[in-house]
Amino acid sequence: MSHTVLQAAQPADLILTGGSVYTVDAARRCVEAVAVRGGLIVAVGFAHQLRDLIGSRTRVVDLAGRMLLPGFQDAHIHVASGGMQQMQCDLSAAGESRDAYLEAVARYASAHPDREWILGSGWSVAAFPGGIADRRDLDTAVPHRPVFLVNKDGHGAWANTSALERCGVTSDTPDPDDGRIERDPDGTPSGTLQEGAMRLVRDRLPQTTQAEWEEALRIGQQHLHRLGITAWHEASVRPDLQAAYMTLAERGELTARAVLALLWERPRGDEQLAQLVERRRAVGTGRLRAHTVKFFQDGVIGNYSAALLDPYVDAESRPTNERGPSLIEPNLLKRYVTLVDAAGFQVHVHAIGDRATREALDAFASARDANGRRDSRHQICHLQLVHPDDLSRFHALGIIANLQPYWATNDSYIPILEGPVVGPARSASMYRFAALQKAGAALAFGSDWPVSSADPLDWIEVATTRMVPDEPAIPPYLPDQVLDLPNCLAAVTIGAAYANFLDDETGTIEPGKRADLVVLDRDLFAPDAGPVTAARVCLTLVDGQPVYADPAFDW
Ligand SMILES: [Zn+2]
Hints:
Blueprint: E1 14-17, E2 20-22, E3 30-31, E4 33-37, E5 40-45, H1 47-50, E6 59-62, E7 67-70, E8 72-77, H2 79-87, E9 89-90, H3 98-111, E10 118-123, H4 135-141, E11 147-151, E12 156-159, H5 161-166, E13 179-183, E14 189-195, H6 199-202, H7 210-226, E15 229-237, H8 239-250, E16 257-263, H9 273-283, E17 288-296, H10 330-342, E18 346-351, H11 354-371, E19 379-382, H12 391-397, E20 400-403, H13 413-427, H14 433-438, E21 442-445, H15 456-465, H16 485-491, H17 494-499, E22 517-520, E23 537-542, E24 545-549
Parallel strand pairs: 1-6, 2-7, 8-15, 9-10, 10-11, 15-16, 16-17, 17-18, 18-19, 19-20, 20-21
Antiparallel strand pairs: 1-4, 2-3, 4-5, 7-22, 11-12, 12-14, 13-14, 22-23, 23-24
Helix pairs in contact: 2-7, 3-4, 7-8, 10-11
The protein binds zinc ion.
């Protein structure tokens, strides 16, 4: 293994030694020590091999058996929304209880008497029958000020009567093409706005200021560094958020690598391409990049907005007439994806249903036919339902399966909300990660935070067990679809780095790569390691510099 040690003329700045260094290189080697100089990894090997690199000013850190890994990367996340959730009325800690939400909203409103609007997020549709929340409940908590609360998955929102009145949403307001106003039997809006119907209120809210976005990013970034994350893919970016990222990067406050997926705006057409190209150019190629365009092709199953090949079912499991809308007409999607691909962008498509997934694959095939094969690394995220015939197309077309493993459990979503509307066969064939891998798909993991936990150890725990963490009584969901620990660790390091176009400089521990590293308090492969979620992050480094250190870690 001595060939991995560069014959370095100068001493290292930093040597981390005496640990279990899981390199995630092609051979998946495990060594003991890493040397860093000038922010780069200069040597990897066993302790005695790196001894010559210790100079008088080298900081030598004894890992004492802890595990050292490439910094974790999140291939699909909304960092700014996650940070913003913590700045507004945050319901994510109130469980799945209507009463707890109402109490939290009332408490927040009285603590913020100056806020004209009560804005927040993080409630779960699983707390309400059919996933539909009622404005009258919110009126009891906050009667006189408008309240607008986006749910945890971001595909619906809960508004009180004051908010609906102020925005002119009445029984006369038609549903938009890409959304639905839930209504009482007499047509009066009942308080839940699905998908595109959220714009009826959202477009009239006070604008988020650039300073607020920057603060949200700082909060989100700190949260992620604590979890060992050193790079991410911000999955849906409008110009105002891009401006906040660019300001942070210019000021040197961006301590992670971030790839921005620029949102394709559905109400617009081809003419937006020139702006996307200009936005990519403006960002450049430092820690911040913007080489991706994001399309939404469907919504989520629970509100019937996922695009399915076969119809949704009714309460007696009989097929209905509803298959869920394609948010972009499939031929138009082909055209847009081909256009964006020709401009050299990576394309990232949101697809939950099997029809949306197929439409995305068809669009990628069209783009390849028109533009030829290139290193495009297009990806489809979520992939809750994939038709068996489409599994092999990921490998054939070079499409990355961008997975959110934390969702693949028997928590309330699948048994209570989704199973009843898709029927037993489909509710027993979701999130088939092992099948995708077996079919040759490249895998990258992401959280979709703040939809669900940003902690990569949580995702790995679910991906390796298909169990809800800390809920041993709930049976595993499709346990034959588990992935093993080495493959999961690859999907949160080199797999996500590949999806982020950062694999040439990060994602593994190898000489010449950037020293983006994470130290865990235990070796996850040790027989007595316990559940993955029991591990703690001790230290996170980006370019060899600490961006998080546990105060208890002697560093
Ligand atoms: Zn997302």
